[in-house]
Structure formats: C-alpha cells, structure tokens
Amino acid sequence: MSYSTLFTCNPSWGKIEDISSSTEEVFWNDIVENITNHNFRVLSLFGTPINDALHLVCILGNDSTSLLKISRFELINNTFQSHATIIPQIHLFEREIAEQFGVTVHDHPWLKPVRFEQDFRLHVKKNACGNMEYFQVNGEDIHEVAVGPVHAGVIEPGHFRFQCYGENVVNLEISLGYQHRGIERMLQGGPYPQTLSQMEVLAGDTTIGHSLAYVQLIETMADIHVSQKSELIRVVLLELERIANHVGDIGALSGDTGFLPTASYCGKLRGDFLNLTASITGNRFGRGGLSIGGVGYDIDFNLAATIAKQLKVLQSKTLSAIDLFFRSTSVLERVENVGKITKEDVITYGFVGIAAKACAMARDTRKNYPFGYYNAISYEIPLETSCDIFARAMIRRAEIVSSLELIHNMLRSIQEIAIQKPMRVNGVVLPSNALGISLTEGWRGEIVHVAQTDEHGTLVRYKITDPSFHNWTALSLAMREGQISDFPLCNKSFNLSYCGFDL
Amino acid sequence: MFFVLLERLRQGYNTSKYPKIEPILSPRFSGVPKITGNCDLTCKACIDVCPTEAIAKKEQSIAIDVGKCIFCDQCVPLCTHNNIQFTHEYRLASNQRSTLLVTKEVEKIGFQLNQQIQKLFKRSLQLRLVSAGGCNACEADLNVLGTPVYDLNRFGINFTASPRHADGIIITGPVTLNMKQALMDTYDALPNPKIVIASGTCAISGGLFQKSDEVCNGVDSLLPVDLYIPGCPPHPYTALNGLLQFLGRV
Known about the structure:
Largest sheet of chain A: 5 strands, mixed
Distance between the termini of chain B: 39 Å
Strand content of chain A: 15-25%
Oligomer: heterodimer
Mean pLDDT of chain B: 91
C-alpha cells in the first residue's frame, strides 16, 4: 500500500498540504517499493523549502499507466541517507540537492559537484567550476586526456576527462557547469515579465519544448483555457523543432564520419525546417511562438497550405539525403556496434528520450503522459534494439517520419478553423501553497517542470529537469571500452544539452 | 558512388547569391525596430512588459536599445498609438555600442568603417568561437554559416579549432562566471593583432540574464569589442552581413 499522492493527468497540480508528507524511512521505502514492484521510475527528486523547512520532494511516473506519484518528507538536521546504491537513477538528483542546499548526504557513492552553482540559501559557491578531484586509473601505460571547456567545435563548453589505455577508454568523467546562468534562482518570486522568455532560452534549441512545459503548467494552475486551434499550433511548432534538430543531428553525425554529402544536404535542410518555424513565429527557433493562454502567432488557411506544400518537398529531399547516410558502408562501419549502452543501463540509470528508445525502452511523454492535443492522437513510439550510434540515428529518422505525418494531420485540422488573434494572458494569478507538474517531450526526451507557490501565489521554487540531466551519464557509459577517437561521434549521437543541464 | 552523384543532382546547388541578391526572410521576421510617434507622458506599458528592459523614455518618445532587445514583439500591441513597429531590416550589426540605439530620429544602425581592420582581415578572417553561457541558439545559427547555403568559406572566413590559429574571437552567451576564466585564457591565447566579436543579445548586454548574479552581463565589461551582432539569436544573414560589413566586403 503506497501512501504517496496520485496525479492522473499531465499537467497537474495540487495543494501542498494535500501531498502526503512522512518520515524519511517511509519516504524511501515507498519509492523503492514503487520502483521495484510497480514499474515506476523517478521523474524528478529535489530539495525545496516548504513552510521554511527544507523538504525532499520526489515525483515518480509509471510509463504504462500514466500515473504520477508525489511524496515528500522534511529533512532533519539538514541531512539524509543516500539511496543511490539501491536506486542508481537518483544518483545525480542527490548530488544536486547536496549542492543546491548544502545538505549532508550520507554514504553517497560519488558525491561530487553537479554544476558548481551557488547554495540556494547561503549564496556561496563551494568550488570554482571544474575544480574537483577527477577519477583516476593508475598503472603504466595509462594516460589521462582532458578536453574542454573550450573545445574544437562550434558548440557549448563542457569538460571531459578520459582515462585511456592506448586508444581504449577505461573511463570518461564529465564535468559541466560552465553554462550555468542561475535560472532556477532567477525564477523565484515570479512569474515576471521575463519568465516566459527565460523558459525559451534555458535550452535554446528546445525553445518550444521548455516553454510549452511552462505555459501549460501555468495554465493548469491558473485555470486558463486554451483554444483547440492553439493546441494544434503548439503541436506543429513542437514537431517542427523536433524535425529540425534531428535533421541537423544526422548531418552532424555524417560530418563526423567524414561522409560529406549527407552533412552538406542536412545542413541546408535543417535551415529549411527552421525557416518553416520562422514563417509562423518570425524566429527560426520559435521564440515568441507560445504565450500563456495560447500561441503568439496564428496559422491561417493559406499559411497552413504553404507549409504543407513545402513539407512535402522537404520530406522527399530529407529522406533521400538521410538514406544516403544509412546506405554507405563506410558510415555503417563507424556507427554500428560503437557507443553501445545496454537496456539494463537505461532502466538502472533512468535514461530518457532517444537514448532510451534506441535500447527498445518505450519512453516518450507524448504517449506515456500525453499533454495538450497529444491526448487526442494515437502515437506509436519508434524503437530500436541495438543501443548503439546506429540505433540512435535510426530513431531520429523514424521520428522525422512520424513528426512529418503528425504535422500534416494538424495542418489539415488547422485549415478548418477560422483565424484567431494571438492570445496572451497578462497578470496571471496562481493558487497559493500549491505544487504543479508539467511534462513535455522535447526533441531530446522528457522535460519535467515543477512549480511551487507560496501563500501569495508567487513562485517560491521552480524545478526544471531537462532530459540531458539523466542522459549525460549515458555518454560516460557508452564511451567505456570504446576508442577515444570515437568520442566526437558518440557525443553527437546523444547530442545532449550543456545549458539544459547547467541551467 | 553512383547514388552519391545521383543525390547531388537531386539536391541541387544550394548556395545563396547573397550579397549580390538580397535574401528573402520570413514575412514575420522582426528586424530593426522603428519608432513613429510620441507617447503619453505617464504611459509605461511597453517599458513594463519588456523582458530585458530595452525600452526607455526619451524626451517625448522612447528609445529602444537594440543591444538589449530580444525582438519578442511584446511591446508592439501594447502601444495605444501604434508607435512601435519591427521592420524587416536584418542589418543590425554595428561596431559601436552607442549606435545600437533606435529612436524616433535615429532609424538606421550606424556602422563606421575601420580601415585598419579591413587592411588586416579583409581577405581572410579566422575566428574561434567561445560559448560563454550561450543557450545553443546563437552557436547553432553561427555554425550554420559554414553550411552550403551561407558558405562562409567563400568569403575567406573560417572557424578554427584552436585559438592559436585565430585572428579573432567570437563570443556568445552572457559570459557566465563559471566560464569567465576559460574565456579570458582563450583571448590571451590569440596572437596579436586580434579582434573580439560579441554575437547575440546576451553577449552584448547580458540579455535575459542581466539580473542574474552568475553572469557578467556581456563581453563589454571584460574585453574590447570590435563588432556587435544583435539578435536572439541573430539571424544567420544578420551575422553574415555584420561580418562582411566589418571587413568592408559589402
């Protein structure tokens, strides 16, 4: 018998006093029981002040039944017992709590900094970024390779520490935090005029994914109705973002195997999909696309027709450019059986998104915890079984195809609805002492936003879990026993967000 | 090989004819703002809604700081006099921070040509990109300049892997405290003569992160900036135009 509070739809919210609180022992036993025997997994686990006392809040989700469970307990003496050895999927969440609130975590197997951020209450940083002891392997012929923060590509910074035996990687340790902008602390006391815009940029290539999680959470908590047309347009924007990034990723993978044809064509095609988003919102990344209460820009009959026509052209060009990649034996040599993780890794560490689907784990918020118009769509999650770079590329191809179909269906429905003016609700009133959860499927994977309000209805805590938070560990595991020269390819096959992790 | 050639025929030639031919951007693209009239003295609707405090009162009207503006258009519908419009002018770059200010009188973003810079880098500019807290949109839309549509290489501009091979450093992001040291080390590693480019609203003014105590609010406070490219993120043509103007190529 589980005591934790149940939510049955996404997004959801409830009064904090209705969320069952208990002792530390009952809290952990309940979580372990739900994970071991009832197929739940941890969506988020974080520290937050409730009535001036620090609590741990855990959100569990069951992918088959779509149930969400929340539980909490109040920390005693600012300390708790780590359970990362029993349920490894919480390892990083526990480290984050230790860093954000200066909590003493007993017996954590790997208690290291997460993003080198300030303590939420004391406003001090323990260490300069990257300054920590790195795991070392000793022995003759073992050498250490350090990459980053400034590294060769035109991408964000992060630090990678390899322990190598010749070309073989014995261990890869990843240290991030260079992109940390302090977003979670900036959101406290809001929502402010800049809050929605900040949601758009917390992971800039996932503008729609994150801003959708935010607006739908606020709309649920403030009881704001959204029109059907807005819901349809939101799906179009989210899926266009997904396609553009997947096309770009396959192009980048292609470039890294030295197969330039697909790299060049995908470079252009990604821009074409971004320009479709720009034809709706004026901005290639969809900035300004969503607003609380609806969408920032309408799609009328003609624009829908234009987009549909352009998509047909792009579909055939994209698939033929991508299939050239999958057909090339020199590419397949580089991507098959490289960068492998296992299905057990996915279950143990709680990986989500593309990394999970490539290991035949059906984790996709659009089906598991449907939101917005996805509640009316029957969606099949594409799965692969080989868990390697090839599988992750194939998942992207499959998602491009399914997203294109989804967009066509949405556009057909959009054409039947009259023009609507952009809806933007200013001056939102949130319920007091409440906790709300919202999940969306960003193009990398599952995004979790949790909002907590105080007695005035202002945000006292806003917890963001980007899919990269779970999945950076997958990169570490995939590189073990691999070749160090496969690192760029492996990194690109996951293509995780540095700023989504660092916030 | 046959399939590769067939695909090339199918995909066609993709490089745009810019700068010979003007690019066609989305009709909803927001470029340089235009201020057309005076305001009510007490009205602060646009100022209050602006996420980055880019709008300020100026005499009888307002001024928009394009180095802070994220082009979100939220101010436009709030003005009862319809004083604010965003034009399709994608040429936003400037080499002086002070010219990134649009008022009723000043409509265009000024650009002063620097003979010295053009003499040194006109035909070849090697750039090292450093992302100091960028959200990946600026980085992605700068990376795209290397793809066939924009093809930066045909102008002699290139992104290098090492700062030791670079003529200049192009910085995105508001410069997080965590990245500050790495940025300064990279700048120091560039051999002289060197230039600094700040790309994106965050790099110019801190953008949406101005109120955060984890960022340095842009590059200006740390390094001497030679080129500012506004936008959130700057459209690739804005960045390309900025670079070409800087080099005296347009």
